[in-house]
Specification:
Layout (H helix, E strand, L loop, with lengths): L5 E4 L3 H12 L7 E4 L27 E3 L9 H4 L1 H17 L8 E3 L13 E3 L3 E3 L2 H17 L3 E3 L4 E5 L4 E4 L5 E3 L2 E4 L6 H10 L4 E2 L3 E10 L4 H4 L6 E5 L3 E9 L3 E8 L2 E8 L9 E10 L5 H11 L7 E3 L17 E3 L3 H7 L1 H17 L6 E7 L5 E2 L1 E2 L4 E2 L5 E3 L9 H15 L1
Parallel strand pairs: 1-2, 1-11, 2-7, 11-25, 19-20
Antiparallel strand pairs: 3-6, 4-6, 5-14, 8-9, 9-10, 12-22, 13-18, 13-21, 14-15, 15-18, 16-17, 19-21, 23-24
Helix pairs in contact: 1-10, 3-10, 8-9
The structure holds flavin-adenine dinucleotide.
The site of flavin-adenine dinucleotide has 47 residues, from helix 1, strand 3, strand 16, strand 17 and helix 10.
């Protein structure tokens, strides 16, 4: 490959896998600059959930899904076989920098159990479990490797503007501008508004998107154990005409609800800890609806999320429980509501799909009143810019590559795989 100056915006899973592929193949690290608005792995604090070395992936639950229909879009660009091979590379990178690789385990359910059949389908796919606690150590080892290879990192540095025509980047609150020959745009979910701004400014052509919205459900694990024994990260699903629902990102054993803040609103997610000291015997997962046919899905989701708040805080509903605590023993940032009126008013008919999903789960798992839900959980599908499928470069700017959640990924494996795919195209 011609040696060029490469700038990566975002030290998340996509950006880091991208750079690793290059230096592993002899590309001079000195020509790669990675800019991130968060902290390096030695200074990153637990509450910095979405920014810093390894991005949201670095502080998440560490479940590496291994299927092309889970975690966003990959095979559309490169085909099924290549997608699986790229995901293999991501998993080996996590293994390579893991302090105890022998503790990584894979759950691989094979058959749909009879007891869920009348009500739900179950998606079966392998998941590699890295363990949240180890992700910090992985991030440190991985970072040290890239620094040794000469890669330059700029931490606590937020990119505020990019000029695709002159190929310059502006840094927030600084007069510094940085030039590039190739640009990797890997800002993840915390950079979603920046991506949108660029898409608007440059009128980037986009692919059509659906809405993905719902709640984070939580209950004691004992009710779900018979399903967890078959599939740790189970994916229940139901399909209707323009709406499909699925359980999403299941956490067990030491399962905590995580608070996300996007556009000033509070939304929920979840993560699991490894280690007996964190065990709380809870299960949580998203119940996410994919709604097709909404005209401006992004604006629609944002409006719904902003109405599902009480004084800028998300909601919690339970017929009998109170909200749980975070893994740091603090209260989850949420307001408990006594009924579902606000939820029904804001979500309209879509609230019924979620309530029905919970009712049907109750028939199978018999948790009765012993459950709660954090409202809302949302996957903002940012307008997905149209890219050249060969190298994920913008159709009008062939040296600007979008990867990870900033493009169409929704998880660690697919984000990392997209990073590696672009690196291979440059190599
Ligand atoms: C709590 C939680 C749990 C999760 N659990 C799982 C899981 O178990 N399995 C799974 O597959 N996925 C999980 N995910 C999703 C997964 O982490 C993401 O899909 C993945 O990290 C996306 O990778 P990325 O590289 O695109 O973005 P990220 O990993 O989010 O990285 C983006 C980086 O860009 C930086 N950045 C953003 N804007 C700018 C800017 N303007 N200037 C400079 N830097 C910027 C950020 O600081 C961040 O470090 C979870 C997410 C969360 C929040």
């Amino acid at each position: 490959m011609k040696e060029q100056k490469i700038v990566v915006i975002g030290a998340g899973v996509a950006g880091i896998n991208f750079a690793t592929k290059l230096v592993d193949n002899g590309y001079p690290g000195e020509l790669i600059t990675i800019i991130d608005k968060g902290n390096d792995p030695f200074n990153r604090q637990p509450e910095e959930v979405m920014t810093g070395m390894l991005g949201s992936g670095g502080w998440s639950d560490g479940k590496l899904t291994y299927h092309t229909s889970i975690g966003g879009v990959l095979s559309k660009y490169c085909g099924e076989d290549k997608a699986m091979e790229l995901m293999d590379q991501v998993i080996s990178n996590f293994r390579r920098f893991h302090p105890k690789p022998e503790e990584i385990f894979c759950s691989d359910p094979q058959a749909e159990p009879d007891f869920i059949k009348p009500y739900f389908g179950l998606r079966l796919f392998p998941v590699w479990h890295i363990g949240s606690n180890y992700l910090h150590e992985i991030a440190k080892a991985w970072y040290s490797y890239l620094v040794d290879k000469g890669v330059k990192f700029m931490w606590n540095t937020e990119v505020s503007a990019i000029d695709f025509k002159t190929e310059y980047i502006d840094i927030k609150d600084s007069l510094e501008i940085i030039s590039y020959d190739e640009l990797i745009f890997a800002v993840g979910k915390s950079g979603i508004d920046f991506g949108k701004k660029l898409a608007d400014n440059y009128q980037l052509p986009t692919e059509p998107k659906s809405v993905q919205i719902g709640v984070r459900f939580e209950a004691p694990q004992k009710y779900f154990q018979k399903l967890i024994d078959i599939s740790y990260d189970f994916k229940l699903y139901q399909k209707f005409n323009n709406v499909s629902l699925r359980s999403f990102c299941t956490n067990n054993n030491a399962a905590y609800v995580a608070v996300e803040e996007t556009y000033g609103d509070i939304t929920y997610n979840g993560h699991a800890k490894k280690g007996e000291e964190f065990r709380n015997n809870m299960t949580n997962f998203g119940i996410l609806m994919e709604i097709k046919g909404i005209e401006n899905p992004f604006e629609w989701s944002r409006e719904v999320v902003s109405k599902l708040q009480f004084r800028n805080i998300g909601l919690y509903y339970s017929p009998s429980r109170t909200p749980s605590q975070t893994s740091e023993g603090e209260s989850i940032n949420t307001v408990q509501i006594g009924n579902l009126n606000q939820f029904k008013e804001v979500m309209g008919e879509y609230a019924d799909y979620i309530i029905n999903f919970i009712d049907q789960m109750n028939k199978v798992f018999e948790f009765k009143n012993d459950w709660g839900m954090y409202i809302p959980e949302v996957k903002y599908l940012s307008p997905e810019p149209l890219v050249d499928y060969k190298n994920l470069a913008l159709v009008d700017y062939p040296n600007v590559h979008f990867v990870g959640d900033a493009l169409s990924a929704r998880g660690i494996t697919v984000s990392g795989a997209q990073g590696i795919y672009v690196a291979e195209s440059l190599l």
